[in-house]
């Protein structure tokens, strides 16, 4: 199987085929990093792009993400064995009062695929919980997701809390979700914003350790 | 011209004094009359009283029984929480596995809790204002209901992993929604709105397979029972506009992310488009001047039967002067 064929399997959302293909690549002697960057990440870039352009939709994006994860799972033991470093740790979650998680999950998976150690706090996450995670997990960045105009204010609360606890300079805060904009991100003093999961990978990449 | 005449004439493309104001009101209503949110969802008297006040004070032309997406889930036996002063919350999925599908009992709306409450709401509307206002019942469309029962992430994968099972679930949802819609029509609803926002996440192929056929059957049942049908799919539906027009709905809502002119053209001869300014940026955060501009832009783009609303629900914290500004813009439009 060639690299391009595996990429196609990911794009099509074929998890079993992807896992099998990744094993074959390993057997052929390809380096773990090359498989991640050259195949997994590159396939998800295509998926992100097609989603942005309206060629594919949420279900296709989700099954592609699942296939990518299946490939990543094969590599996991080797990643740890080789002492390969993650890009860093990120904590993500949907803010308090908000149950929308599809976008947040996609962002998490894409980041995972790109080589981040992702800690997902789930939905309806209180500001205090983000604070606790920052203290305990010491992530390079946190990603806040909000889909409701009524809950996006909670992002500002999280930023204020970090400031208050003297932790603001230690962690980058990225925000996203349909009602959130670049302008809003700047207004509340966040470090970054992305309109979709593909772009999120690029924005987070700035803060890799 | 009262609201009932206004809507009927407008749908027929006949002259009206102003285009009907078809905004969707939910959480805004209890806040407006100073009642806690939970009462709006649990007590039809509060829903009716608050909506009547909002309709009168802000010149709305439809009285709606829409409140939240979880009436059916509750009556199917799902767990829904009602925080004192927040919107209802359903954080646990009733149908975790398709093995439990046979246990899913279709409820009888007349013996249910929350759908029965909605039916009583329609009856009360009818008594209080039935000759003046069109009364709109509400149901989840089958695809949206499947999502409410099983979870969004799950259904988004089921379309590929378990299409057969998903169709079985959709049949159950369809049956429950038909019963609920017909009961509301019998209670006096002139039209039935149905929400299918989750379907906006599907591309045309999957929408055509899992959402549209069930919308069509639900709408056919609504028509057969003697009411009009309004299809509400918020989100960016540009890719499925062409399919939505085949639903049979008389009114199709258009969210702000869609080009309204394109939607009106697509629906011409099929349905009245209803839309479509941004509920947050324009209605909640905008100024009366900006609102007027947005409303007029929609009217300019539309036809003789076009209806006007914000793309989705009027946000809770909308300033009253902004909601007033929609009515004023409709009244003052110079080119009807
Ligand atoms: C699915 C959905 C639901 C599902 C959620 C299921 C779930 N598990 O997520 C259910 C049915 C539960 C639901 C409930 C409600 N919903 Co809802 N829902 C939607 C819907 C249809 C799709 C959202 C979605 O998943 N989009 C797809 C994903 C992929 O896009 P995304 O989330 O924007 O994410 C992308 C980017 O934003 C970005 N991103 C996201 N997060 C992050 C984070 C970071 C750090 C970064 C960098 C990037 C990033 O990357 C993602 C991938 O590309 C939208 C309407 C629509 N069609 O958009 C309404 C919508 C979001 N809901 C809305 C509303 C009002 C509600 C309710 C209040 C309805 C009610 N009255 O009860 C409740 C609230 C429940 C709650 N407390 O949260 C409104 C919000 C309006 C507003 N701006 O305030 C919308 C816009 C519908 C509308 N037009 O009015 N909803």
Mean pLDDT of chain B: 97
Low-pLDDT segments, ≥5 res of chain A: none
Q: In the CATH scheme, what's the topology name of the largest domain in chain A?
A: Rossmann fold
Topology of chain B as a string of helices (H) and strands (E):
HHHHEHHEHHHEHEHEHEHHEH
Q: What's the CATH H-level homologous superfamily of the largest domain in chain A?
A: Cobalamin-binding domain
The gyration radius over C-alpha positions of chain A equals: 17 Å
Widest sheet, order of strands of chain A? 2-1-3-4-5
Using the CA coordinates, give the radius of gyration of chain B.
Answer: 19 Å
**Total beta-strand segments of chain A:** 5
**Percent of residues in beta strands of chain A:** 5-15%
Please explain how this structure is put together.
The complex is a heterodimer of chains A (209) and B (336). Chain A is α/β, with parallel strands linked by helices and 209 residues long. Chain A has helices spanning 3-12, 15-27, 32-52, 58-81, 102-114, 127-137, 153-164, 182-188, 197-205, and strands at 89-94, 117-120, 141-145, 172-176, 192-193. In chain A, helix 2 runs parallel beside helix 4 (58-81), helix 3 runs antiparallel to helix 4 (58-81) and helix 6 (127-137) packs across helix 7. Chain A is 57% helix and 11% strand. Chain A has 2 domains: 3-82, Orthogonal Bundle (Methyltransferase, Methionine Synthase (B12-binding Domains), Chain A, domain 1); 89-205, 3-Layer(aba) Sandwich (Rossmann fold), CATH 3.40.50.280. The longest helix of chain A is centred in the first third of the chain and has 24 residues, at 58-81. Chain A has a 5-stranded parallel beta sheet with strand order 2-1-3-4-5, with helices on both faces. Chain B has helices at residues 3-11, 28-32, 37-42, 44-58, 71-76, 114-129, 142-150, 152-161, 163-186, 204-224, 241-244, 260-267, 279-284, 288-301, 320-332, and strands at residues 63-64, 135-140, 191-195, 228-232, 251-254, 272-277, 307-310. By secondary structure, chain B is of the alpha/beta class. In chain B, helix 4 (44-58) crosses helix 6 (114-129). Chain B has a single domain, classed as Alpha-Beta Barrel (TIM Barrel), CATH 3.20.20. Chain B has a 7-stranded parallel beta sheet. In chain B, strand 4 (228-232), helix 11 and strand 5 form a beta-alpha-beta unit. Classes of the chains: A alpha/beta (209), B alpha/beta (336). The interface between A and B is medium-sized, with 20 and 20 residues. Cobalamin sits between chains A (58, 97-104, 106-107, 143-145, 147-150, 174-179, 194, 196-197, 200) and B (26, 68-69, 87, 152-153, 197-198, 200-201, 234-235, 255, 280, 311-313). Chain B: Keywords: Lyase. Chain B: It holds the Pfam family URO-D. Chain B: This is Uroporphyrinogen decarboxylase. Chain B: Its EC number is 4.1.1.37. Chain B: It is an enzyme of class 4 (lyase).
